[in-house]
Amino acid sequence: MIFKYALTIVVVSNVFCLTQSSNILGIFWTPTKSHHILGSALLQALAEKGHNVTMLSPYEDDVNIPTFRQKKLEGIAGTFGQIMNPNVSIFQQTKMMYPILIQSLENFWQNEAIQELINTKEHYDVVIIMTFFNDGILAIPYHLKIPTIWFSPFGSTSLINRYVANPNLPYSTNMQISDGIPNTFIGRLLMATMNMLLSSIEDYLFNPTGDRILREYLPNVPSISELQKNVDLVLVNSHHSIETPRPYVPNMIQIGGFYAQKIKTLPTDLKEYLDSAKDGAILFSFGTNMKIANIDKDKLDAILQGLKKIAPMKVVFKSEIDLDGIPSNVVVKKWLPQNDILAHPNIRAFVSHGGLGGITEAVFYGVPMLGIPLFADQKTNILNARNTGYVVMLNYEDITPGTFYHALKELLGNSSYTEVSKKRSSLLRNQVINPLDNAIWWVEHIIEHKGGEHLKNIGMDLEWYQLYMVDIMLFFLMVLLVLVFLMFILIKYVLRKVKAIVFSIMKTKTKKIKMIYTSK
C-alpha cells in the first residue's frame, strides 16, 4: 500500500513537472566564445530544470542533457578576430568594426539555421537573445509572437539601458570610457557625450543598415527602433561587487556570478600540477578571443622572463600556439577550464586582459589580478577593479621585463590585494537569491505571464529629451529667463520713475533757488 501511494506521488509529480516545462529559444549570435560560454551556462541550467531548450550559436558544446538542443550558426565564429589585436589602435578598431559587422549581419540572416527558424512551425514560449549591434535580431521574436529576454554580457551599458528605459546617468561608468568613475564635471561631460555619440551611431548608422538588410528577409516587421521597445526583460552579467553601483528598473536584473558556481573536476594533468604547487600558482590567460600570436615578441618575451623570476611558484599559461623559451615553472595549454582553475586553493593570482567574465570569476573565488587591458570594455573593468583595490594594472604598451615583473611582485607581495578580493568575493557570494536561480526564476516569470508588460516603465514611451527631463529643464530655463526679463523691465521702470521723481524734485528746488535769488 505504501509503495502504491509513493508511486502515485512520483507519477503526479512527474506529470506536474512536464506540464510546467516550456520551450525556450536561445540566440547567442556574437562571434566570441566567451559570450557563448555565458549563454550556454544559462540555457543548460534551464534545460536541467526540465525545459526544452534550443540554442543557436556559432559554437557548440559537448553536452549530454536530453532537453538541450544545439543548432550551429555556420560562418560566423571568429569574425571579430582581426579586430581583437592589441597592436590595433581604438580608432583602427572602430574603422574596421563597421564593415565586419555588416558582413556578419548578412551571414546571420543567410544562415540556414536562421532561415529554418523564421519558417518554423515549432512553438516557443520565450527567446533569450545576446547580440552586439544586431538589434534586427529582435524581428525574430516579433515574427514568432513570443516574449523577448535580452542578455547582456557587459552589464548595463548606454545601449542596453535604452531597451527598458533604465536611467543612463553620466556618473555611472560606461564600457567605452576608460577613465574610471566620472565624478568631475569633465568626466560627466565626457560620459554624457559618449552616451549620445553611441546612441547616434546606432540610430543613424547601424540601425538604418540593419533595417535595409532585415527587409530582405522579413519585410513586414517594424523598424529596429520600434522593435527595441518590445524587450520584456534584460539580464545583466553584473553585480555591485564588480561594478560601480547604479540604479536599475524592475525589468533589468543583475545575475553577476551565475556561471562561476559550478566547479567541474580538473583534467588529471592540471589537477596534479596545481596540487603540487606548494608555493602557489598563477593563471595567465587573455581569454578566448585574444590570440597570443598577436602579442609582440618582445612583450611576450618580457612576460615569460617575469614569470620565470617568480619560481618556484608555478604558472598555467594559455596559448593557442607553441612557445619558445618556456621557463621550467610554466606549463602551456591551448585550452583551459578557467573557472575551475581559479577555484583551486593553490591559485594565488590571475594575469588577465580584464574581460568581465574573467573578473567575475576571479572575484567569486577571491583571486587578485594583474590586469593588462587590450580591447573594448577591458580598460574600464580593470580601472574600476584597481580603484576598488584588488587589481594591479599594467598597460600593454608599457610591458617590459622590468615593469611586468614589478607589477607581479607588487600583486604577490602586498596582501591588501588578496584581502580586498576576498572581501569582494564575500559580497558577490552573499546574495539573497543565488544568481543562477534568480535568472531562472525571471525567465520562468516572463514565460508564466506571457511577457513583461507589467514590469515596463512609462519611460519606454517617452522621447529621450522627455525621459531625461530636457524639456522640463528648458521650460524652467525659459521661465527663469522670462522672470529675469520681467525683473529687468520692472527695475528699469522703477529706476525711470525714481529718476523722474528725483528730476522733478531737483527741478522744483532749482526753481525755488532761482526765485530766492531773483527776489533779492
Describe the protein in words.
The protein is of the alpha/beta class and 520 residues long. It has three domains: 18-260 and 434-467, Glycogen Phosphorylase B (Rossmann fold, 3-Layer(aba) Sandwich), CATH 3.40.50; 268-429, Glycogen Phosphorylase B (Rossmann fold, 3-Layer(aba) Sandwich), CATH 3.40.50.2000; 476-520. 49% of the residues lie in helices and 12% in strands. It has helices at residues 2-20, 33-48, 90-110, 112-118, 139-144, 158-164, 185-215, 224-227, 268-275, 297-309, 338-342, 356-364, 378-388, 401-413, 415-429, 435-448, 464-467, 470-519; strands spanning 23-28, 52-57, 68-72, 126-130, 148-152, 233-236, 252-254, 281-285, 314-318, 330-333, 347-352, 369-371, 391-393. The strands form two sheets. The protein has a seven-stranded parallel sheet with strand order 3-2-1-4-5-6-7, with helices on both faces. Helix 10 links the parallel strand 8 and strand 9 (314-318).
SSE topology:
Layout lengths: L1 H19 L2 E6 L4 H16 L3 E6 L10 E5 L17 H21 L1 H7 L7 E5 L8 H6 L3 E5 L5 H7 L20 H31 L8 H4 L5 E4 L15 E3 L13 H8 L5 E5 L11 H13 L4 E5 L11 E4 L4 H5 L4 E6 L3 H9 L4 E3 L6 H11 L2 E3 L7 H13 L1 H15 L5 H14 L15 H4 L2 H50 L1
Parallel strand pairs: 1-2, 1-4, 2-3, 4-5, 5-6, 6-7, 8-9, 8-11, 9-10, 11-12, 12-13
Helix pairs in contact: 3-7, 10-14
Strand ordering within the main sheet: 3-2-1-4-5-6-7
Sheet-strand content, in percent, reads: 5-15%
- Output mean pLDDT: 87
Number of domains as seen in the coordinates: 3
The largest pleated sheet is described as: 7 strands, parallel
**Oligomeric composition of the shown chains:** single chain
* CATH class categorisation of the largest domain: Alpha Beta
Shape: globular
InterPro entries: UDP-glycosyltransferase, UDP_glucos_trans, UDP_glycos_trans_CS
GO cellular component, one term: membrane
Signal peptide: 1-21
Transmembrane segments: 472-495
